[in-house]
Fold this protein.
Amino acid sequence: MPMTVRDVLELPALQQAGPRVLAGRDRLDAPVRWVHVAEIPEIADLLRGGELVLTTGIGLPPDDDGLRRWIDGLAAVGVAGVVVELGRRFGGTLPAGLVEHARSRNLPLIALRREMRFVAVTEVVHSVIVEEQTADLLAKDEIHRIFTELSVEGAEPRQVLREVTRLSRRPAVLENLAHQVLAYETGPLTAEELLDRWETRSRAVEVPSGTGYEPRSGWLVTSVEARGNRWGRLVLLCDQEPPPRTRVLLERAASTIALNQLVARDSSSVERQARSSLLLSIVTHSAPTRDVALRARGLGVVLDQRRLFGVVVRRRRPAPGTGGEANARRRELLDAVETAVRECGLAALAGDVDEAAGGTGVTLLVALDETGSDEAALGGLSAALTRAGHRAGSDVVVAAGSVVRTLDLARRSLAEAAQVADATVHTAEPRPFYRLHDVRLRGLLYLLRDDVRLQTFVERELGPLLSYDQRHGTNHVALLEAYLVEGRNKRRAADAMSLSRSALYQRLELIERVLGVDLDSSERRLSLHVALTARDVMRAGGPEPTG
């Protein structure tokens, strides 16, 4: 930590001079950027702030007005404090007007009762400051080296957070815009201590975009952004305001996490890579249709003059794990899908490109002739997946897009399949496979759960009421949900919340005031109901944090 005025006063050279603090005692912990010896009244024009000024007072103005102007100039530039040696100009005491004015400006003013060699202080303090600056440069160089390596290695968020905690010795948390924990490192705390009421605590900490420290909570927060889109925050829990190097550490960690989210690693075979590359070119429209058809034919799959539809196969509840374990599970699922495709005799491209849509499954593009049935093909694929020996066969989701008749439209069907797969996590009824018509409102909202626009919509609609509940320890959000779920039937809503009718009316009026809405408006009720449903989906369907 940087040297402070208090630290300087505790140096032996100053202690021998008998320092006496006459003003600004509550600012003795201000950092000292440099020590400056000055004997001219216009010294403020030469300073930048943060200096500790040493003077004998010989060159200071002779009158009280001049001394007050001198104090004003130093306070305005932001000096850390003023040390005046008595004896040469002021005798045994400083002028009362000088002391009173320093107190009014809350500027630390210290009188030395005995003579002192100023160089004995400047040498020590400047040496410490230079050493601190050197250590800071070395620390920043180490941070740069570590996080460059993590970027090259494509490290996952938990690995990045582990380095943040090791270097800072503080707990670190990665959260999304809905204040859900994605990954964490506990540091000296337990997981329970760190994550207790996390969403409530996080909502109370508002830091402008970029990096900022919130003293009340002790949180240092920086935004996590990728390609200009802010999708989360990285939080470091501190017991006091951290030094600049810690801010650099957190910002570099956030940029590493954001960068690594854009990097995909693939360890599959050359043949699989070829299929995956071809599928990816269809998904991204990065190659002409004619070239895609030719490359597919070279891989043994005819796509032109066929009825095409996309399929995404995922586990409904992916097992936890990172790095090599996650890659191994993806390969296991891809093995099972390829086996099932061969058993069913389907003409299909299968590849590990679901990650491009934010998933962790296997993508297929199935090609049927005019006599083939897409429903029969999907049913056979679902049954064959279980027969393929996949140990979680009953928990595999088969999601399909619409049938299209040209390769140009295959991208739309693949995207639709990925959307259906996203939404099936909230589909209670088990099915051999799922199509778009199986997705309802909750499925649609789950599909959009990571969209910043949906998270912003929920915060805009419900944020004031959530904040009100947090501040007052109430639960008006649950009451509003009960009221809307019960179709505005006040009696049933009151019974559901164990309230009297009069209490219900009062709380509904309060909700209208806090949110600035009229609950008699059908459009506003619909908007609130969608926001409540989206919040439930985001909370229930959020990613499991790793720690």
